[in-house]
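Hi Prof. W.,

I finally got the Fe-S oxidoreductases of moaA/nifB/pqqE family prediction working! I wasn't sure whether to trim anything, so I left the full sequence exactly as given:
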Amino acid sequence: MALYPVLDDPVATPVGAVSRLVDGGEMDCGSGLLLLITRAMRRLGGGELLAIRSEEASVDTDLPVWAELVGHEVVDRLAESSSGPWWFAVRKVDQGLRDTVFSSGSRTPLGQRLWVYTNFDCNLACSYCCAESSPKAASRRVTADLLRGVAAEFSAMGGRELFYTGGEPFLHPELGDLVQAGAGLERTILTNAMIFGRGRRRETLEAMDRSVLLQVSLDSASPELHDRQRGKGSWARAVDGIGLARSLGFRVRVAATLYEEDPAGVRALHATLDEQGIDREDRVIRPVAQEGFADTGVHVSLDTLEPEPTITADGAWWHPVAVTDPHLRIADAPLPLAEVFGVVRDTMAVQDAAARSGREVFRCA
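And this is what came out:
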């Protein structure tokens, strides 16, 4: 279900009859409205009108700048009062940013990588989990049939890397089928490595192609910090899981998530990983994002996150760390991927055009 009303049928509005309507509520261009109007514009034909309603005062300034950058035309504007809400009618001009050359920066090239939340339930309830996963979370599982369609379209688009995350992917009863659906792509599974040591999950692990990379969460060189953030006993079981995976011939990457980078603690973690034989290139130190369960950490937004399109069973998102943020939702369904990536490309083009022109269009709270 859409988080804000997006009407796809012709409708009468205060700015006239239009083909579609987006009601952005209190969102500004930097907190999600841009994604809504970009998706709506992609569904219009040249010359058709989109109505946009907003209760956010900054949009009255920002939206005309956006239209100028994109090449569309604001044909009407109306304020219901001096304090809003504001209405705009924008005509789609069938040209503009489609030929824009994107800046490369340090971002992963768009179209190379896709994230999949296989499920949202987890055996842990980490204090900073951006996905709000826990043993009590609804599973929201991706089906094998859905992922086969996703992987086929992603491969046809020239995609290379498929990341499976959660939740804990090894809680998904069809994980083996999900991984097999991505055959031919570079596949990585993010896991806490605690539950694949026995029974059916051990069988799933052993049956996997050894080209699959396992990225294991380990936040510290000793149990104190890791267990405080993830739960008592989790450090020892994660270390055992790393050892098991490596003994079975899997390449293992280790990722530590930290509120503050303690140099001494990071050095100790590297020393521990040296002892375990984890290559330096297979170590990731990342900050906590202020999303999900985390009430502190790095603030993320459309402006600060390089896009890494992410799908779930019920939608598509700008980046995997923002999968609980309604302002960074791209679509209400995971397919078609062409639309998901198209919305991201169009949004990046506006951001890049704004940067080149020296204009600041997208405001963050």
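The first strand starts at residue 6 and ends at 7. Does that look reasonable to you?

Thanks,
D.
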